[in-house]
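Section 5.1 Outputs to date
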Amino acid sequence: MISVGEALQIIEGNAVCGDVISIPITEALGYVLAETAISKINMPPFRQSAMDGYAINILPNIDKYILKGEIKAGDSHSYELKPGEAIRIFTGASVPKTANAVVMQEKVNRLDDAKISLQESPIIEQNIRPKGEQCTVGQEVVLPKTYLNPAALSYLVSVGVNEVKVYSKPKVAIVVTGSELIDINTPYQDGKIYESNSILLKSELLKLGIKDITVLKVEDNYEATKKTLQNALSVNDVVLVSGGISVGDYDFVGKALKSLGTKELFYKIKQKPGKPLFFGKNNNSFVFGLPGNPASALTCYYMYVLPLLKKYIGYSDIHLNRKHLSISHDYMVKGIRAQFLKAVVEGKEVTVMHQQSSAMISAFIDANAYIYLPEFSEELKKNDSVEVILF
Protein backbone atom coordinates (compact mmCIF):
# COMPACT_ATOMS: atom_id res chain seq x y z
CA MET A 1 0.00 0.00 0.00
CA ILE A 2 1.36 3.43 -0.95
CA SER A 3 0.62 7.02 0.05
CA VAL A 4 -1.44 9.53 -1.94
CA GLY A 5 1.72 11.44 -2.81
CA GLU A 6 3.47 8.33 -4.08
CA ALA A 7 0.45 7.38 -6.18
CA LEU A 8 0.34 10.84 -7.78
CA GLN A 9 4.06 10.64 -8.56
CA ILE A 10 3.55 7.30 -10.31
CA ILE A 11 0.67 8.75 -12.34
CA GLU A 12 2.79 11.74 -13.35
CA GLY A 13 5.77 9.54 -14.19
CA ASN A 14 3.76 7.33 -16.52
CA ALA A 15 1.33 9.79 -18.11
CA VAL A 16 2.07 10.60 -21.75
CA CYS A 17 0.67 12.91 -24.41
CA GLY A 18 -1.39 11.42 -27.20
CA ASP A 19 -0.38 11.42 -30.85
CA VAL A 20 -0.25 14.71 -32.72
CA ILE A 21 -2.92 14.85 -35.42
CA SER A 22 -4.10 17.46 -37.92
CA ILE A 23 -7.80 18.30 -37.89
CA PRO A 24 -9.99 20.97 -39.51
CA ILE A 25 -10.46 24.05 -37.36
CA THR A 26 -14.21 23.41 -37.47
CA GLU A 27 -13.68 20.18 -35.50
CA ALA A 28 -11.08 21.47 -33.03
CA LEU A 29 -13.26 22.66 -30.15
CA GLY A 30 -12.04 21.17 -26.87
CA TYR A 31 -8.69 19.97 -28.20
CA VAL A 32 -5.29 21.19 -27.03
CA LEU A 33 -2.95 22.73 -29.58
CA ALA A 34 0.21 20.69 -30.17
CA GLU A 35 2.10 23.06 -32.50
CA THR A 36 2.21 26.83 -32.76
CA ALA A 37 -0.47 28.28 -35.03
CA ILE A 38 0.83 30.84 -37.55
CA SER A 39 -1.23 33.69 -39.00
CA LYS A 40 -1.75 33.42 -42.76
CA ILE A 41 -2.85 37.05 -43.16
CA ASN A 42 -2.50 40.45 -41.56
CA MET A 43 -5.26 41.20 -39.07
CA PRO A 44 -6.84 43.46 -39.93
CA PRO A 45 -5.81 42.81 -43.54
CA PHE A 46 -6.30 46.51 -44.45
CA ARG A 47 -6.77 49.85 -42.72
CA GLN A 48 -10.17 49.36 -41.18
CA SER A 49 -12.83 51.70 -39.88
CA ALA A 50 -13.48 51.16 -36.17
CA MET A 51 -17.01 52.60 -36.36
CA ASP A 52 -19.79 54.00 -38.49
CA GLY A 53 -19.04 57.53 -39.61
CA TYR A 54 -17.11 59.48 -42.23
CA ALA A 55 -13.57 58.92 -43.47
CA ILE A 56 -11.89 62.26 -44.27
CA ASN A 57 -8.69 63.68 -45.62
CA ILE A 58 -8.09 66.40 -43.06
CA LEU A 59 -7.87 69.96 -44.30
CA PRO A 60 -6.68 72.14 -41.41
CA ASN A 61 -8.89 74.89 -40.09
CA ILE A 62 -12.09 73.88 -41.91
CA ASP A 63 -15.14 72.07 -40.62
CA LYS A 64 -17.04 71.51 -43.87
CA TYR A 65 -16.17 68.55 -46.12
CA ILE A 66 -17.33 67.51 -49.57
CA LEU A 67 -18.97 64.06 -49.56
CA LYS A 68 -17.72 61.78 -52.37
CA GLY A 69 -19.56 58.49 -51.84
CA GLU A 70 -19.98 55.49 -49.52
CA ILE A 71 -18.01 52.37 -48.51
CA LYS A 72 -19.65 49.42 -46.76
CA ALA A 73 -17.88 46.52 -45.06
CA GLY A 74 -16.76 44.13 -47.79
CA ASP A 75 -16.67 46.75 -50.55
CA SER A 76 -13.62 47.06 -52.77
CA HIS A 77 -12.95 50.63 -53.82
CA SER A 78 -10.51 52.98 -55.49
CA TYR A 79 -11.42 56.21 -53.74
CA GLU A 80 -8.62 58.74 -53.32
CA LEU A 81 -9.78 61.59 -51.15
CA LYS A 82 -8.27 65.01 -51.57
CA PRO A 83 -7.83 67.32 -48.55
CA GLY A 84 -11.26 68.56 -47.57
CA GLU A 85 -13.08 65.51 -48.95
CA ALA A 86 -15.00 62.82 -47.05
CA ILE A 87 -16.73 59.51 -47.68
CA ARG A 88 -19.48 57.75 -45.77
CA ILE A 89 -18.02 54.61 -44.16
CA PHE A 90 -19.23 51.77 -41.94
CA THR A 91 -17.60 49.66 -39.23
CA GLY A 92 -15.18 47.10 -40.66
CA ALA A 93 -14.92 48.77 -44.07
CA SER A 94 -11.62 49.46 -45.80
CA VAL A 95 -10.42 53.05 -45.27
CA PRO A 96 -9.13 54.82 -48.41
CA LYS A 97 -5.34 55.25 -48.48
CA THR A 98 -5.54 59.01 -48.51
CA ALA A 99 -8.02 59.22 -45.63
CA ASN A 100 -6.34 59.99 -42.32
CA ALA A 101 -9.24 60.03 -39.85
CA VAL A 102 -12.70 58.56 -39.32
CA VAL A 103 -15.18 60.82 -37.53
CA MET A 104 -18.03 58.99 -35.81
CA GLN A 105 -21.43 59.80 -37.24
CA GLU A 106 -22.65 61.30 -33.95
CA LYS A 107 -20.03 64.06 -34.36
CA VAL A 108 -21.09 64.95 -37.91
CA ASN A 109 -23.93 67.08 -39.29
CA ARG A 110 -25.20 66.12 -42.73
CA LEU A 111 -25.80 69.43 -44.54
CA ASP A 112 -27.06 67.89 -47.80
CA ASP A 113 -26.27 64.98 -50.11
CA ALA A 114 -22.87 66.45 -50.95
CA LYS A 115 -21.67 68.15 -47.76
CA ILE A 116 -21.05 67.48 -44.08
CA SER A 117 -19.83 69.59 -41.20
CA LEU A 118 -17.78 68.40 -38.22
CA GLN A 119 -18.75 69.22 -34.66
CA GLU A 120 -15.14 69.00 -33.41
CA SER A 121 -11.64 69.02 -34.83
CA PRO A 122 -10.48 65.59 -36.01
CA ILE A 123 -7.32 63.86 -34.82
CA ILE A 124 -4.93 62.14 -37.23
CA GLU A 125 -5.69 58.36 -37.54
CA GLN A 126 -8.58 58.49 -35.10
CA ASN A 127 -10.96 55.50 -35.29
CA ILE A 128 -8.77 53.73 -37.87
CA ARG A 129 -7.45 50.25 -37.10
CA PRO A 130 -3.98 49.95 -38.69
CA LYS A 131 -3.24 47.08 -41.06
CA GLY A 132 -1.76 44.21 -39.00
CA GLU A 133 -2.68 45.86 -35.68
CA GLN A 134 -3.64 42.50 -34.14
CA CYS A 135 -1.09 40.32 -35.97
CA THR A 136 0.91 40.12 -39.19
CA VAL A 137 1.49 37.41 -41.79
CA GLY A 138 3.73 34.64 -40.38
CA GLN A 139 3.31 35.76 -36.76
CA GLU A 140 2.88 33.15 -34.02
CA VAL A 141 -0.68 33.69 -32.84
CA VAL A 142 -1.61 30.75 -30.58
CA LEU A 143 1.02 28.73 -28.71
CA PRO A 144 1.21 24.99 -27.98
CA LYS A 145 -0.70 23.67 -24.94
CA THR A 146 -3.49 26.21 -25.53
CA TYR A 147 -6.97 24.83 -24.93
CA LEU A 148 -9.03 25.56 -28.03
CA ASN A 149 -12.14 27.27 -26.72
CA PRO A 150 -14.65 29.14 -28.93
CA ALA A 151 -12.64 32.39 -28.74
CA ALA A 152 -9.45 30.62 -29.86
CA LEU A 153 -11.25 29.02 -32.80
CA SER A 154 -12.75 32.35 -33.84
CA TYR A 155 -9.35 34.06 -33.69
CA LEU A 156 -7.63 31.33 -35.69
CA VAL A 157 -10.26 31.41 -38.41
CA SER A 158 -10.02 35.22 -38.56
CA VAL A 159 -6.30 34.98 -39.39
CA GLY A 160 -6.80 32.36 -42.07
CA VAL A 161 -6.01 29.14 -40.16
CA ASN A 162 -8.20 26.32 -41.45
CA GLU A 163 -6.35 23.34 -39.94
CA VAL A 164 -4.51 22.82 -36.66
CA LYS A 165 -2.24 20.22 -35.11
CA VAL A 166 -3.60 18.98 -31.80
CA TYR A 167 -3.11 16.15 -29.34
CA SER A 168 -5.42 13.24 -30.04
CA LYS A 169 -7.97 12.10 -27.49
CA PRO A 170 -7.81 8.57 -26.11
CA LYS A 171 -10.07 5.66 -26.87
CA VAL A 172 -11.53 4.59 -23.53
CA ALA A 173 -13.32 1.43 -22.47
CA ILE A 174 -15.45 1.27 -19.32
CA VAL A 175 -15.70 -2.29 -18.06
CA VAL A 176 -18.41 -2.77 -15.45
CA THR A 177 -18.26 -5.94 -13.35
CA GLY A 178 -20.83 -7.45 -11.02
CA SER A 179 -23.54 -10.10 -11.35
CA GLU A 180 -25.74 -8.05 -9.04
CA LEU A 181 -25.98 -5.17 -11.52
CA ILE A 182 -28.93 -4.65 -13.86
CA ASP A 183 -29.63 -2.14 -16.61
CA ILE A 184 -31.88 0.83 -15.86
CA ASN A 185 -34.31 -0.36 -18.55
CA THR A 186 -34.79 -3.69 -16.77
CA PRO A 187 -37.62 -4.10 -14.22
CA TYR A 188 -36.20 -4.04 -10.71
CA GLN A 189 -35.46 -7.43 -9.11
CA ASP A 190 -34.85 -8.25 -5.45
CA GLY A 191 -31.17 -8.44 -4.60
CA LYS A 192 -30.12 -6.49 -7.69
CA ILE A 193 -28.71 -2.98 -8.09
CA TYR A 194 -29.18 -0.59 -10.97
CA GLU A 195 -25.78 -0.15 -12.61
CA SER A 196 -24.83 3.54 -12.48
CA ASN A 197 -21.04 3.74 -12.59
CA SER A 198 -20.91 3.55 -16.39
CA ILE A 199 -23.03 6.68 -16.82
CA LEU A 200 -20.99 8.37 -14.08
CA LEU A 201 -17.66 7.68 -15.78
CA LYS A 202 -18.92 8.20 -19.32
CA SER A 203 -20.33 11.59 -18.37
CA GLU A 204 -16.98 12.65 -16.93
CA LEU A 205 -15.21 11.52 -20.11
CA LEU A 206 -17.65 13.45 -22.27
CA LYS A 207 -16.91 16.58 -20.24
CA LEU A 208 -13.30 16.23 -21.46
CA GLY A 209 -14.48 15.92 -25.03
CA ILE A 210 -13.62 12.22 -25.18
CA LYS A 211 -16.20 10.60 -27.45
CA ASP A 212 -14.65 7.27 -28.45
CA ILE A 213 -16.06 5.40 -25.44
CA THR A 214 -17.07 1.75 -25.21
CA VAL A 215 -19.06 0.39 -22.27
CA LEU A 216 -18.69 -3.33 -21.58
CA LYS A 217 -20.48 -5.30 -18.88
CA VAL A 218 -19.38 -8.62 -17.45
CA GLU A 219 -20.69 -10.89 -14.72
CA ASP A 220 -18.55 -12.19 -11.86
CA ASN A 221 -16.89 -14.96 -13.81
CA TYR A 222 -13.14 -15.33 -14.22
CA GLU A 223 -13.03 -16.45 -17.85
CA ALA A 224 -15.60 -13.88 -18.93
CA THR A 225 -13.71 -11.17 -17.05
CA LYS A 226 -10.40 -12.17 -18.60
CA LYS A 227 -11.79 -12.27 -22.13
CA THR A 228 -13.55 -8.92 -21.76
CA LEU A 229 -10.43 -7.25 -20.38
CA GLN A 230 -8.25 -8.78 -23.09
CA ASN A 231 -10.51 -7.39 -25.79
CA ALA A 232 -10.73 -3.98 -24.12
CA LEU A 233 -6.96 -3.66 -23.65
CA SER A 234 -6.22 -4.64 -27.23
CA VAL A 235 -8.11 -1.72 -28.82
CA ASN A 236 -8.22 1.07 -26.23
CA ASP A 237 -5.72 3.55 -24.85
CA VAL A 238 -7.28 3.59 -21.37
CA VAL A 239 -9.47 0.98 -19.69
CA LEU A 240 -11.51 1.87 -16.61
CA VAL A 241 -12.73 -1.17 -14.69
CA SER A 242 -15.55 -0.60 -12.23
CA GLY A 243 -15.56 -3.07 -9.34
CA GLY A 244 -14.07 -6.53 -8.91
CA ILE A 245 -10.63 -5.26 -7.90
CA SER A 246 -10.80 -6.10 -4.19
CA VAL A 247 -10.01 -9.48 -2.60
CA GLY A 248 -13.45 -11.06 -2.35
CA ASP A 249 -14.23 -14.55 -3.63
CA TYR A 250 -15.91 -13.07 -6.70
CA ASP A 251 -13.43 -10.29 -7.43
CA PHE A 252 -11.64 -11.54 -10.55
CA VAL A 253 -10.23 -8.36 -12.08
CA GLY A 254 -6.80 -8.44 -10.42
CA LYS A 255 -6.26 -12.11 -11.25
CA ALA A 256 -7.40 -11.60 -14.85
CA LEU A 257 -5.16 -8.57 -15.39
CA LYS A 258 -2.16 -10.44 -14.02
CA SER A 259 -2.80 -13.41 -16.31
CA LEU A 260 -2.90 -11.02 -19.28
CA GLY A 261 0.59 -9.75 -18.49
CA THR A 262 -0.49 -6.41 -17.08
CA LYS A 263 2.30 -4.57 -15.24
CA GLU A 264 1.13 -3.40 -11.83
CA LEU A 265 2.25 0.18 -11.19
CA PHE A 266 0.47 0.39 -7.86
CA TYR A 267 -2.34 -1.32 -5.96
CA LYS A 268 -4.04 0.12 -2.88
CA ILE A 269 -3.55 3.62 -1.54
CA LYS A 270 -3.59 4.75 2.07
CA GLN A 271 -6.68 6.89 1.58
CA LYS A 272 -10.40 7.02 2.27
CA PRO A 273 -12.44 6.56 0.16
CA GLY A 274 -10.82 4.64 -2.67
CA LYS A 275 -8.27 2.42 -0.95
CA PRO A 276 -8.49 -0.58 -3.38
CA LEU A 277 -7.36 1.31 -6.51
CA PHE A 278 -5.29 -0.51 -9.13
CA PHE A 279 -3.17 1.21 -11.78
CA GLY A 280 -1.27 -0.72 -14.39
CA LYS A 281 -0.10 -0.90 -17.98
CA ASN A 282 -0.62 -3.57 -20.60
CA ASN A 283 1.56 -2.93 -23.65
CA ASN A 284 0.57 0.65 -24.57
CA SER A 285 -2.75 0.64 -22.72
CA PHE A 286 -3.31 2.01 -19.25
CA VAL A 287 -5.78 0.34 -16.93
CA PHE A 288 -7.41 1.49 -13.71
CA GLY A 289 -9.24 -0.89 -11.41
CA LEU A 290 -11.70 1.42 -9.68
CA PRO A 291 -13.70 0.61 -6.55
CA GLY A 292 -17.29 -0.41 -7.22
CA ASN A 293 -18.82 2.08 -4.78
CA PRO A 294 -19.79 5.16 -6.81
CA ALA A 295 -18.36 7.85 -4.51
CA SER A 296 -15.08 5.95 -4.22
CA ALA A 297 -14.94 5.48 -7.98
CA LEU A 298 -15.50 9.18 -8.62
CA THR A 299 -12.88 10.21 -6.05
CA CYS A 300 -10.31 7.94 -7.70
CA TYR A 301 -11.31 9.28 -11.10
CA TYR A 302 -10.81 12.92 -10.06
CA MET A 303 -7.51 12.32 -8.29
CA TYR A 304 -5.77 9.76 -10.53
CA VAL A 305 -7.61 9.02 -13.78
CA LEU A 306 -8.32 12.64 -14.70
CA PRO A 307 -4.64 13.73 -14.53
CA LEU A 308 -3.62 10.84 -16.80
CA LEU A 309 -6.34 11.73 -19.32
CA LYS A 310 -5.57 15.45 -19.24
CA LYS A 311 -1.88 14.74 -19.89
CA TYR A 312 -2.85 12.53 -22.84
CA ILE A 313 -5.03 15.30 -24.26
CA GLY A 314 -2.16 17.78 -23.89
CA TYR A 315 -2.98 19.89 -20.84
CA SER A 316 -0.07 21.50 -19.01
CA ASP A 317 -1.89 21.66 -15.67
CA ILE A 318 -3.30 18.18 -15.15
CA HIS A 319 -4.44 18.26 -11.52
CA LEU A 320 -7.47 19.83 -9.89
CA ASN A 321 -6.80 23.24 -8.35
CA ARG A 322 -5.93 23.41 -4.68
CA LYS A 323 -6.04 26.20 -2.11
CA HIS A 324 -6.30 26.70 1.63
CA LEU A 325 -9.53 27.89 3.27
CA SER A 326 -10.97 28.08 6.78
CA ILE A 327 -13.22 25.24 7.89
CA SER A 328 -16.59 26.56 9.09
CA HIS A 329 -17.01 24.15 12.01
CA ASP A 330 -15.26 21.69 14.31
CA TYR A 331 -14.62 18.26 12.80
CA MET A 332 -13.45 15.05 14.46
CA VAL A 333 -11.16 13.12 12.12
CA LYS A 334 -11.75 9.37 12.12
CA GLY A 335 -8.97 6.97 11.12
CA ILE A 336 -5.33 7.47 10.18
CA ARG A 337 -5.55 7.21 6.40
CA ALA A 338 -5.52 10.29 4.17
CA GLN A 339 -9.08 11.42 3.52
CA PHE A 340 -10.97 13.18 0.76
CA LEU A 341 -14.03 14.70 2.41
CA LYS A 342 -16.82 15.90 0.14
CA ALA A 343 -17.36 19.56 0.94
CA VAL A 344 -18.99 22.82 -0.10
CA VAL A 345 -16.94 25.98 -0.59
CA GLU A 346 -18.78 29.24 0.06
CA GLY A 347 -16.70 32.40 -0.04
CA LYS A 348 -13.57 31.89 2.04
CA GLU A 349 -14.99 29.01 4.09
CA VAL A 350 -15.49 25.32 3.47
CA THR A 351 -17.98 22.96 5.11
CA VAL A 352 -17.82 19.17 5.35
CA MET A 353 -20.97 17.50 3.98
CA HIS A 354 -22.86 14.97 6.08
CA GLN A 355 -22.92 12.14 3.53
CA GLN A 356 -19.38 10.76 3.38
CA SER A 357 -20.22 7.10 2.72
CA SER A 358 -18.39 5.66 -0.28
CA ALA A 359 -21.70 4.22 -1.49
CA MET A 360 -23.50 7.59 -1.55
CA ILE A 361 -22.98 9.46 -4.80
CA SER A 362 -25.79 11.92 -4.06
CA ALA A 363 -23.51 14.17 -2.00
CA PHE A 364 -21.59 15.04 -5.19
CA ILE A 365 -24.69 16.77 -6.55
CA ASP A 366 -24.04 19.69 -4.21
CA ALA A 367 -20.35 19.22 -3.37
CA ASN A 368 -17.90 21.46 -5.20
CA ALA A 369 -14.68 20.45 -3.47
CA TYR A 370 -12.81 18.01 -1.27
CA ILE A 371 -11.18 18.82 1.99
CA TYR A 372 -7.94 16.86 1.84
CA LEU A 373 -6.70 15.53 5.17
CA PRO A 374 -3.22 13.97 5.16
CA GLU A 375 -2.47 10.75 7.03
CA PHE A 376 -2.65 10.91 10.83
CA SER A 377 -4.70 14.13 10.83
CA GLU A 378 -6.31 15.01 14.15
CA GLU A 379 -9.30 17.01 15.33
CA LEU A 380 -10.07 20.18 13.36
CA LYS A 381 -11.34 23.33 15.04
CA LYS A 382 -13.56 25.98 13.49
CA ASN A 383 -11.48 28.45 11.40
CA ASP A 384 -8.54 26.07 11.08
CA SER A 385 -6.89 26.31 7.68
CA VAL A 386 -7.45 23.18 5.54
CA GLU A 387 -6.34 22.17 2.07
CA VAL A 388 -9.20 22.23 -0.42
CA ILE A 389 -9.28 20.54 -3.83
CA LEU A 390 -11.76 22.22 -6.17
CA PHE A 391 -13.77 20.16 -8.64
